[in-house]
Specification:
Elements (H helix, E strand, L loop, with lengths): L2 E3 L6 E3 L8 H20 L5 H8 L3 H9 L13 E2 L6 E2 L6 H14 L30
Antiparallel strand pairs: 1-2, 3-4
Length: about 140
């Protein structure tokens, strides 16, 4: 059993996964999220400071919900966050569509070997004439 203290209220709880907050604080945060979401639906032109003040949450918490893609804003909303890679204005998440596609391409090509025009294994193979797939150790 993994027992931790809640980082919000200090109570001990059985930690499983996720943020180190107890179930009571998780429930309270979820209620605040629903309150913020309702406020945004009713006040579409509200700015982030106004939402935070009227709902009793910190602006950092609202920004976190935006980055987690739990809150998504329309294009005419005054609330925008910026892509962490290129700085373009976005309405939710951490990256703009262009940067997401670029990162997806980089990840998908990461597993493929680079085309160097040679079929020799990386590292030059085993100098003793072996298969080239063995661990090399150095002896003094």
């Amino acid at each position: 059993m993994n027992v931790r203290n809640c980082r919000r209220c200090g109570r001990m709880f059985n930690y499983i996964t996720g943020p180190s907050i107890c179930p009571a604080c998780k429930d309270a945060a979820e209620k605040k999220f629903e309150e913020v979401r309702k406020y945004i639906r009713e006040n579409k032109t509200a700015k982030i400071n106004e939402i935070a003040q009227n709902c009793g949450v910190e602006t950092r918490q609202i920004e976190q919900w935006i980055r987690e893609e739990r809150l998504i804003f329309a294009s005419d909303s005054p609330i925008k966050v910026y892509c962490e890679t290129c700085g373009a204005p976005i309405f939710t998440g951490r990256y703009c569509d262009k940067c997401k596609k670029s990162q997806a391409n980089n990840f998908s090509s990461a597993g493929r070997p680079a085309d160097s025009g040679s079929s020799a294994p990386a590292g030059g193979g085993d100098k003793k004439g072996g298969s080239g797939n063995k661990m090399h150790t150095f002896h003094e």
